[in-house]
Write a structure and sequence with these properties.
8 helices, 9 strands
């Protein structure tokens, strides 16, 4: 699964390997100077997932960074509107990402590593066969200083269930600096369509118990209804998600979690 920060980093890596084609500057400027016809509706499914369109737009930004700035601004605005989020302008450094890896733990040792009171998941599906606990450091991007630093520890609760399925719940300390959480996360399918990675969108659920914030993602391992049952049993308070780009960008930091 990818959160917004991981998507931005992956796209940046992909784009670095692109050799931009020659830019038809005259044709671009002539087109920009003419009145634009009303845009036609895209074919059904063209924006599924939305990040596929975003990747295309990003490639255009790289192709004409200094030659046609007016066009670049327009494309950047469209990209931000699609994602409803502005990616960090500085990708996470290698020294930081190399530190983001999970370490096995017990509930007691995990509690000793984190700075919040852990409220363990409850109301889990009845077919759980095994479970494990792990902790990891996080990465923090400061939007004010445009710098990265290591953040505090978080806890992963991973469950194996029937049908060779598994899912993970993430517990972190509530931090208002992040702003409201996103509504969706994206799964990399490993496939490429028309030169663009195919990502599948999943809904994300986030709730609070005291100073702990817990999140879960619906998918093959756990359904949205099962997540709601966990949240209800834990008596978690739902955290409203960001509905607009301004809301998503309102935080002063972005957090980067390791892949699981």
């Amino acid at each position: 699964m990818y959160d917004d920060v991981r998507i931005g980093s992956a796209l940046a890596t992909m784009i670095e390997g692109i050799t931009p084609p020659p830019v038809p500057l005259l044709a671009i400027l002539q087109k920009v100077s003419r009145p634009q016809a009303a845009a036609q509706a895209p074919p059904a499914g063209w924006l599924r997932p939305a990040v596929a369109a975003a990747a295309i737009a990003t490639a255009i930004i790289v192709s004409v960074p200094l030659i046609a700035p007016g066009v670049v601004v327009t494309v950047e605005a469209r990209l931000a509107q699609i994602l409803q989020w502005t990616p960090p302008s500085v990708p996470p450094p290698d020294w930081l990402t190399s530190r983001l890896h999970a370490q096995a733990a017990t509930l007691a040792s995990a509690q000793a590593r984190v700075s919040f009171r852990i409220v363990p998941p409850a109301g889990l599906p009845s077919d759980i066969r095994s479970s494990s606990v792990a902790t990891s450091l996080t990465g923090i991007y400061n939007k004010m200083t445009r710098t990265w630093e290591l953040g505090s520890q978080v806890v992963f609760f991973t469950y194996e269930r029937s049908g060779n399925r598994s899912f993970t719940l993430l517990a972190d300390r509530f931090d208002p600096r992040t702003g409201p959480p996103p509504r969706y996360m994206y799964e990399d399918t490993g496939r490429v369509r028309n030169g663009v990675p195919v990502l599948v969108r999943h809904e994300k659920f986030t709730w609070r118990n005291g100073d702990q914030i817990m999140s879960a993602i619906d998918g093959s391992g756990i359904t949205a209804d099962e997540i709601r049952a966990v949240q209800s049993t834990m008596h978690g308070v739902p955290i409203p998600v960001a509905e607009t780009r301004n809301a998503r960008d309102s935080g002063t930091i972005d957090k980067l979690y390791p892949g699981r």
